[in-house]
Amino acid sequence: MKITTYNGRPDKYLGYYQPQSVIALGVENVHVWCHELIHAADHRLVGADFKGGQQADQEIVADLGACILLQCLGHDVESDPGFCWTYVQAYANRAKLNPITAIQRVLKRTCDAVAAILAEYDRIKAEQPTAEPVAA
User: Which of 91, 28, 85 is nearest to 58 (CA)?
Assistant: First the structure.
């Protein structure tokens, strides 16, 4: 997968995920990065059921997942739960759902995507050689 950037100012999106090929960021914001990364993990897990465009369930998974992932990593401020709630509300309203109901419908899927990213991180970290102690 290619990771790239673009000038996000004239665009209406802060970032985007193009299935199985690109994550692009138009801003320097770790929450946006994690949102797009969750899209990629969610796509890997749900496969052919993943659809292009702004699907309410996928957007709720991505933003809620970004918030959870950043909380897990100790980035409380960057997780921005207030923005996440506003984002979830907007997509739940679009789907004509109560926000809590919308979250309940995708919570396992969201947690699975977060767990997949953390497991991959652990796998990569375990493969890294450890530095030898320097003799005094």
Answer: 91
